[in-house]
Every structure is written in C-alpha cells, then in structure tokens.
C-alpha cells in the first residue's frame, strides 16, 4: 500500500488563521470551472450548495475533486439531513457538511451521528472512495480523517435555533455554526437590521463562542462586509456566491462599455457644435 502523508483539513487550517476571518463563497453553478476560479481567486473554502441550487450529487462529486486538486476546502451544504447523502458526499472527499435549519441539540446530535463513524456515529466505511485515496491510504487513516478532520457546520436559521445556540454548539461532533440571518429574520417577519433579530444573532454568537465553537456568516463581496463580520466575532464568512459575482462583473463591464460613445458620434457632435458657433 502506498504511504501517503496524513491529510489535514484545509478548512480547519483556515480557521486557525489569526489575521482575519477565513474567506469562502457559495458555489451554485454546475460548471467545475467555477470552483477552479474561486480557488485561483484565493478563497480558503467553498460551500457547494445543494440546498439552493439544482446541482446533483454527481456534480458535487466533480466540484469536490477540483477543489481538492486546487487547494481550496470543499464543504457541501445538503438540502436536509439524510445519512445516505451525507455518507456519499464525505466519501466523495468533502471536507465538511453544512446542515441547514438545525433548531435543537437533538437535531444537531442526529447530524453529528450521520457525519461520524462508530462509535461516535453511524457513517459507513468506504475506504476505497476518494476520501480514502481510492484505497491508497490505510483504513486507519481514512477513519482518523473522518473522525478528526471532517467538519460539521450547523446552520442557525430561526429564533429557536438562536436561543439554543449554546446547546447546539456543545453537541459532540459539531465543529462550527453558521448564522443564517436571512432565514432567521424572515421567520420572525422582521428585517435583518431589526433590533430583535440583531439581539438574537448577537446572543447566538456569544453563546457559541462561550463553549469554544467558531461561528460564521454570509455577507457581501466587499471589504466592509468582511470587516463587519470580523467585528461581530465571526471566524469565517462567505462572500457572496459564484453566480452573483459573475453577474455583477458582467453588469459592471456592460455599464463601462455603455458609457463610451462611438468616435463617429463624438466627431459629429463636435462638428455640429462648431457649426452652430460660426
């Protein structure tokens, strides 16, 4: 059997940075070039979004492979907790699973069991998959990575979840929380800036950090958004998404292009102005 070095989680490495939040972005487009471009841009991690996109598990499989080869951490957000899907994505090489709408400690515990091998969980063993380097690493290393390096991120997206943040964060196997401010505020029928929503989020961040679990959020593709995340205590932040950034860049290009008038038009205007003055 080939001897390979112990693999460490790129996401955990990024969280260990002390010079600012780890930077990631959502990937919603099915083209593998999207992940490649995010890696070339310098993101620490990508979250392949199976909740709010039409991507398949097979597409996620290809995204994960490109991410690992280009040095960006692949996390996958599942649409809902399903042990079979979680197992397939982790064996595809995902460094972590993000589970939406985790409202209670019991739900967090169920997610943790799906992500971990026995005796901590119920994940099945498939060491001849990409996660086991197609059998090139020992089963012991495959199991070690799954237990110690893979991350579980629970999303806090309701007032109930925010109030239970400390209990959710304290569940064995939960490695981080992600605040879903859009869903949380919508569930309360209020804006994200409403004092009640702000208080819920601040409390969730405070309670999670109190038990030593990092918290992340999703924001815009601007320095001010990242600064706000850092000031709020977030250890990682998602800057927009691949589709929105592509759209924004395209719109900016068209706006710039439309601001330029054709040379012939400028010449005609100048001639008419000059003729009018004579």
UniProtKB/TrEMBL annotation:
This is HpcH/HpaI aldolase/citrate lyase domain-containing protein. Residues 24-201 form the HpcH/HpaI aldolase/citrate lyase domain. Pfam families: HpcH_HpaI. It comes from Cnuibacter physcomitrellae. Belongs to the HpcH/HpaI aldolase family. Coiled coil: none annotated. It comes from the Bacteria. The keyword Acetylation does not apply. GO terms for cellular component: cytoplasm. GO terms for molecular function: aldehyde-lyase activity; metal ion binding. Keywords: Lyase, Metal-binding.
